[in-house]
Amino acid sequence: MLTAVEVLAQNNFGDTRSGGLAGPMGLFIIVLLAIATVLLIRNMNSRLRRLPGRFQGQEADAPSADPAESVQDPTDRSDRA
């Protein structure tokens, strides 16, 4: 009669020495993911280069290019009456 420890200690995974496919398959998947990543990055870069510098209607909504001009000094009373 088998005890619980003997059942849990058994190797039910088959022969681990023959047919070692995990290493080459893992390498194949990593290389495949790396190639897909490079192709996606190239595609995104080409699409970003095709975008215009400014979109229509952006001029009115955009803040000033110089941050110093857009910040007002709270102690400056020159424009107040």
Description of the structure:
The chain crosses the membrane at residues 20-41. This protein has helices spanning 4-9, 22-50, 58-61, 67-70. The protein is 53% helix and 0% strand. It is mainly alpha-helical and 81 residues long. It has a domain at 23-47. The mean pLDDT is 77. It has 4 helices and no strands.
| Uncertain stretches of 5 or more adjacent residues | none
For this structure, the quaternary state is single chain
Number of helices: 4
Largest sheet: none
| Class from helix and strand fractions | mainly alpha
- Gyration radius from CA atoms, angstroms: 32 Å
* Number of distinct beta strands: 0
Rounded mean pLDDT score: 77
Q: Based on CA inertia axes, which overall geometry fits? A: elongated
Order of helices and strands: HHHH
The termini sit apart by: 100 Å
Q: Give the strand content.
A: under 5%
The level of helicity is 40-55%
